[in-house]
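Input.
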Amino acid sequence: MSEGSEGLNESAVSGGSEMTVAAAFAGMRRAMPVVFRAGCPDCRGRFELGANALRLAIGASSRTTFYSFTCPECGVCVRKPAGERIVELLTGGGVRTLRLHSTV
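Output.
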């Protein structure tokens, strides 16, 4: 990283003086919460859900990797397969993740 560029440089991170949390985050703007668009296969409702409304389960195969949520319109529990890109988006957006372990 060149001098004068934004962000932390190595000397700021490993330097001798301690930095407070307030100083480290000074000037940062509040991030907007992440929302995901979803649809219900039962009632055909379309809506947006926050990360806290979704759950991601990562298994050993594509058959055991899925995300789930409760439809806010009809209350049905929805479970959908999650490929690599969906897993990446959901984990990056703060969705709680459960890693499934094989019993074999």
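DSSP finds three helices and six strands in the chain.
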